[in-house]
Amino acid sequence: MSATPEPEPEPVRATLQLSGRRLSYLDSGGPGPLLLALHGHFGEARTFAPPAWQLAPDWRVVALDQRGHGHSGRPPDFSREGYVEDTAAVLHHLGGPGPAVVLGHSLGGVNAYHLAARHPRLVRALVIEDIGAEVDGDLSFCLTWPHRAPTRPALLEALGASAPHLTDAVREYGDGWGLAFRPQDMAASQRALNGDHWRAWLGSDCPALLLRGTRSGVLSARHARAMAAARPHTRLVELPTGHSVHATDPEGFAEAVRTFLGALPPHPHIRLPRARRAG
Length: 279
Prior knowledge:
Number of domains: 2
């Protein structure tokens, strides 16, 4: 009788204190090369379960709750500089061997390619999910969502059509049920994200995979193809999904990412220095 395979260990929640503010992340652990995952607005580290976690144990997958999301603290601002420096601090804190592959969806994708442009030694390759080099979004609709509701069903009902996309962010608090972020922060973060990011997109030349959902209302086919054509070492893959490729087609997403990772040059074994922990 063959032995039943043991289940893979769950990712471990860990925290970094940065200038008195909490940055929380999930870490699959293991000796594999590092892949850092950055979610989009309204998301958090758990957003990438299961597709990103399928890459473990070949890869050490670390998924960050970006500032103002999930279990991470609320920041003084939602600037690109702030998001990027948070991510750089986490990579220095992890101190793994060599630079990381950075995977980002939407907001996280812009933050990922800005990180590669500003800190090229930290980034081995990029996986950018359904976001462009020009961004013009509006999240003001979320300002109507309730701060608290008496029960989980009441909160989900009040969230309406958005509820299925927010289940990871639903929390029970002492005064009722609410979300793991402040809607006004998300609207402010989107306003800070809007604009022309071509300089950052073209500011690095590490290998990049650009994933687009063919039914996406965020990244058009024309813009995605222009991005791939303008940047060296960039491959475009389109899947029959909407904006959240990883959620709509987790198998296709995982296969595209796995194929891209398998074609990367050998891992550079350069240990990054650990940054001193800020108070």
